[in-house]
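Supplementary Text 2. Reproducibility record for the structural model of the 530-residue chain.

All settings were left at their defaults, and a single model was retained for analysis rather than an ensemble. We include the record here because the model underlies the residue-level annotations in Supplementary Table 4.
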Amino acid sequence: MTELYPLTPSGPSRRSTLRAAGGGALLLGLGLAGCRSAVSDTSSAPQGASAAPRRGGVLNVAVNADFTPALLFAQSGQSLQQRLIYNTLTRYDDRLHPKPELATSWTYAKDGRSITLRLRDDVTFHNGRAFTADDVIFAVKNLQNPVRAAQLRSTAATVTGFEKRGDHELVLKLAHPVNNLFDLFEFMIITDSESVEDAVAGKKFIGTGPFKLKKWSPGSGLSLTRNDAYWQPGRPYLDGVELRVIAQADALISSLRSGQSQLSFDVPGKSLGVVRSGSGLTISDYDTGAGAVYLGVNTTVAPLNDRTVRQALAWAVDRDRLVAQTLGGYGLASAAPWPKSSPAYSEANRTHYTHDPAKARELLKSAGHSRLDLPMLHIALPGETAIAESIQYDLKQVGVHVTLQPTDGATAQKKLISQGMPALWSLGHGFAQVQPSTLAVSAYPFNEAKNTSKYRSAAYTKVVQEAWTEPETDTAAANALHQKISTILLDEAFLIDLVVRGQLQVSADRLHGVTLNKFSYLNLDNAYLV
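Retained model, structure tokens:
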């Protein structure tokens, strides 16, 4: 057996902080090399480390879309509230090392076919019921349920048996070894089994987290109040949290600048220029990133069933301009999905496709096309619309005329899951920030067994399955498999990555101690207002 000893929970994610200076606009869209270099200067000290924690106050968080209860167990743009109401078994530090949360320690069997979890014995749900091993069993089985639309269901499904050793020790038995089990443990929120159907219906949310649901007002947001029985002594500092839906970018920024809201992760990049010195706001860019911007391709729609045509689209988009003009200079132009922190990252893959309209036109001509007319779905929010319009412009330059189809986020997510997308779509994806194998076995756009593009390949399935079951200890073999996956993604271009997006936080200077986990769950255990 291999023992993994408990470690001290990590502090805030490392991130860089950029304050507006000189009274001028912080970011203007073009010519942002200086801004990008400033943003890349990371600091190991958390924001506001010198300020003493203070109890009390209600934090107002501005979000651009409403909470969707039916997607409670899926990772999406609405996942901020997950860690406020619920806990997870473990959480990663910046180096993808798991740290304790509801699980205090764990032991892996040498053959990788089981793991023993030791659990906290001082945790209660918001309704007063004690947390036990039965709740972990329920959480795993819940994600195995196809109706839950959970991206990590394939990993949950490898758990084929449970052995309880009292109320606070549990053995998970696995069908075969997997190297992304701790991705599952950080993704999987621990919910109250007795009220889970009420949760997905939006009626009741009961977890073990630092805040309890006070009220959900559809279209307006969530109101949370402090959990006085939280298992972390003296936490949280805040009395409550209000997640307020403000869909329009101008109104959202106005809310931040006026002090009505103290935190947001939804300010569009091109709107960051209005954040000025003296406003009492700070822009922070998390090292974890915020997933990637991509162009999705339905490979069953002619002529997109031709790989040459898909590759032409990949050459047509100006990724650098996309970063500069629509993302405010925050992000990394990349043809591959991996952030620089990923074991699968390589500079060669990042630059595999660059902006080359002539090559795009040449490939289209070789495939017998001089003009294409195609629909493209995108989310009808300011930042996402700007991205879609930028892609539309670039494609038009090579003879691909795109008609935009704006839609709401919940509908887009449902189409993504059900493989109901039109010929093209512009969205964001996550899962490249954790174990590389998770992307291709869990993320809907990449899933080797059933992806949104309807792309199937025996070779892709084979290498993904090998990468998923390869022991983490064999680094050379794992890296070789990651490269094989990247090569298929780049050559087949059924999903065209464009930018690894920056995870941008705009917060009031009086707010301290905010962190996100690898799945962008907001952690306010140590947050406070001064």
